[in-house]
């Protein structure tokens, strides 16, 4: 409505005033994706943050994303519209277990999904995202891999890289882990021609019935190039916005209980405007932690080239 247009105008004005740019993940609400300067998956967003000319980054996503942007761009101001937007999975590993595994196995690479705290990144050897995990694990010289925090992405990567030995951790994304298999099967019965597109954070049973498995960007790229006209999408429902935008002639279905990440949905236009105006909710990180966790992100960017 009119109020929304007013807020959008104000955001544009304040963006210029503060020399700011808006980054958004595909899971945030459509009205945020509409006004974002850059939208993408976790890998794209971590790459694009490097080399932006603007001084301030407003990061519409969860805390590990803003933190990663700050780690890679220490001189920039990174603002989070809502500091409480956090990824549950990012905390599902611990330094003591990493240490134990390092003692137990010689020649172990600790591979850290970017969905993790800076503290976990610091104790790891390299970061990955769902878009580059297979490529990076293959490129590592180590035969044994301890993959944290996500057990589902770990299992998927392990299947793709059978020449390596995996040690698994017990983390998961609550949104993907609780995807309803029965509902997906029901959707397939209702739309037998539809292809099933799945994020690798999903459990094995969901992956097993899928036609494509990949990151949010991977899913979006696959849907655009497929000759199929309808799809059942097994990831967070925010991707619908870009899928429908790119493919007005195609149909996208979700499980009846639509997967929603409540943290991603905390981002609103009002909160974006507020941080632009006040400079509140800035991401801070100590220089030691930044340097040590930064090594793992930089190694990711290097190996994913
Ligand atoms: P990607 O966008 O990298 O596929 O990540 C999915 C996700 O869960 C981000 O929180
Ligand atoms: Fe974390 Fe899952 Fe939300 Fe992504 S969808 S931010 S992995 S809780």
UniProtKB/TrEMBL annotation:
EC number from the UniProt entry: 2.5.1.72
Pathway in which the depicted protein is active: Cofactor biosynthesis; NAD(+) biosynthesis; quinolinate from iminoaspartate: step 1/1
Broad class of enzyme this protein falls into: transferase
InterPro entries linked to this entry: NadA, NadA_sf
One Pfam match: NadA
Cofactor(s) the record lists: [4Fe-4S] cluster
Domain of life: Bacteria
Keywords from the UniProt entry: 4Fe-4S, Iron, Iron-sulfur, Metal-binding, Pyridine nucleotide biosynthesis, Transferase
Protein name (database record): Quinolinate synthase
Species this protein is from: Faecalimonas umbilicata
Gene: nadA
């Amino acid at each position: 409505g009119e109020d929304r247009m007013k807020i959008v105008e104000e955001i544009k004005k304040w963006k210029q005033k503060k020399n700011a740019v808006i980054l958004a993940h595909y899971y945030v609400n459509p009205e945020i994706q509409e006004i974002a300067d850059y939208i993408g998956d976790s890998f794209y967003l971590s790459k694009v943050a490097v080399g932006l000319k603007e001084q301030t980054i407003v990061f519409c996503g969860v805390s590990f994303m803003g933190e990663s942007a700050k780690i890679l761009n220490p001189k920039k101001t990174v603002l989070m519209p809502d500091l409480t937007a956090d990824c549950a999975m990012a905390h599902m590993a611990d330094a003591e277990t990493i240490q134990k595994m390092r003692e137990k196995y010689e020649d172990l690479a600790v591979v850290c999904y970017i969905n993790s705290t800076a503290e976990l990144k610091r104790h790891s050897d390299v970061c990955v995202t769902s878009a580059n995990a297979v490529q990076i694990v293959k490129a590592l010289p180590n035969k044994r891999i301890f993959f944290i925090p996500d057990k589902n992405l770990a299992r998927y990567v392990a299947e793709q890289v059978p020449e390596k030995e995996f040690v698994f951790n017990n983390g998961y994304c609550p949104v993907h882990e609780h995807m309803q298999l029965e509902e997906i099967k029901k959707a397939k019965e209702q739309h037998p021609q539809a292809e099933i597109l799945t994020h690798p954070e999903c459990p094995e049973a969901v992956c097993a019935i899928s036609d494509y498995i990949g990151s949010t960007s991977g899913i979006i790229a696959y849907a655009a190039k497929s000759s199929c006209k309808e799809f059942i999408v097994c990831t967070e429902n925010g991707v619908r916005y870009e899928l429908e935008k790119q493919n007005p002639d195609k149909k996208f279905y979700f499980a009846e209980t639509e997967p929603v990440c409540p943290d991603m949905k905390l981002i609103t236009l009002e909160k974006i405007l507020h941080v632009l105006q006040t400079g509140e909710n800035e991401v801070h990180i100590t220089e030691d932690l930044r340097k040590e966790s930064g090594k793992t992100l930089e190694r990711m960017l290097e190996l994913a080239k």
